[in-house]
Design goal:
single chain; 7 strands; 4-stranded antiparallel beta sheet; alpha+beta; 6 helices; globular; Aminopeptidase; 3-stranded antiparallel beta sheet
């Protein structure tokens, strides 16, 4: 078994990523692209992900998307936003993450978040904001396990559930 690592999205993980997308779809979670489009145009999908790093769409900030890979298998996604805008200061923060359903509750969320904090440090970010729903016990444990200090709980226009805002000092 190789140690889990983060990598920018790559073609060689297409099959594993598409399989994970099927898992998310079965949970009724919205996908960025329909599965058929993802399978047929995966190279375009990767290009769009990479363009977000330097040329985000209006209203968005530059972000790097990393995939958590374990034993040559896509396990999760971590989005690292290089800067914060007003909206991200309320909801979203510097880091957003997800673990594919079949790999949850195995410690990968904590590993992924710690590796993402290392990437943030490499970018020169000294304080990282991470947010989550007040009802998301898994994310609360992950963020606090990474040294997150709760700033507050707020209601946002994006969610009727309180959002917890945590800061991690690097």
């Amino acid at each position: 078994m190789t140690a889990p690592f983060l990598i920018r999205a790559e073609m060689r993980y297409k099959d594993s990523y598409v399989a994970a997308a099927r898992e998310f779809e079965s949970e009724k979670r919205p996908l960025r692209w329909k599965l058929e489009m993802l399978e047929e145009h995966f190279d375009e999908y990767l290009q769009i992900l990479h363009e977000k790093e330097f040329d985000p769409q209006p209203g968005f900030v530059p972000q790097t998307e990393y995939w958590l890979i374990v034993d040559n298998d896509y396990v999760g996604t971590l989005s690292l936003r290089h800067v914060l805008n007003e909206r991200l200061r309320e909801w979203g923060g510097h880091i957003g993450y997800q673990i594919r359903p079949s790999r949850r509750r195995q410690g990968y969320g904590l590993i992924q978040c710690r590796l993402g904090l290392d990437k943030a440090c490499e970018m020169g970010i000294e304080k990282v904001l991470i947010t989550c729903d007040d009802t998301n016990i898994g994310s609360i444990k992950i963020i606090e396990g990474c040294g997150g200090v709760l700033q507050d709980k707020i209601i946002t226009v994006d969610s009727p559930i309180h959002q917890r805002r945590y800061w991690v000092t690097l």
